[in-house]
Design brief:
alpha/beta; 2 domains; 226 residues; 11 helices; Beta-carbonic Anhydrase, Chain A; binds cobalt (II) ion
Amino acid sequence: MPEESKRRALEHLIAGNRRWAEGTVREDPAFFQRLVEQQAPKYLWIGCADSRVPANEIVGLRPGELFVHRNVANLVVHTDLNCLSVLQYALDVLRVEHVIVCGHYGCGGIAAADRAAPLGLIDNWLRHIQDVAERRRALLAREPDPARRADRLCELNVLEQAHNVCRTTIAQDAWSRGQPLSVHAWIYRLTDGLVQDLDFTASAAAQSASELTSAIERIEARTRRG
Ligand code: CO
């Protein structure tokens, strides 16, 4: 029966899960017991939904150690209740002290936004990236090569999204009650698996705009040198 064969098509995933769970218990018999009792991650990761950027794995963290939100092109949109709810839970309940917005080079969402070829509903989501490109038009114009231009747009987008985290009422409220919170902007390179810090670190509401300006100035200086 066709339904049965569709179900069986995923058998290797269930088998993979069994192997993983058994291996985990073999290595650390109390692992799941500890995990059930407490969720206490120290970091919130806001990253791209891209299957090549598995958040936990690339920073060497295990289940329970990283709170994660992913969407296409790692956007932090001021009216996105999904992202805002994750952020609020992370800061207000889990008391996470570091929010990492991590983009990646070779991001399909960024490339699609830059090409502006119509793809349907997602175009409305990608408009947020086009807004970033429009604001930084002069800088991007210095990169005539489309691949290099897309790389710069990936960097600029991460910085703007980290700044957006800082501008939420959630981050601002955390800072105003004296809660320790730092917001970081990172970018991951698919070709070597390495994360690079874009040197945006905001640990107070007033720092965010100047961190954004100086990080963008560093990108500008790099594009001038060619
Ligand atoms: Co991506």
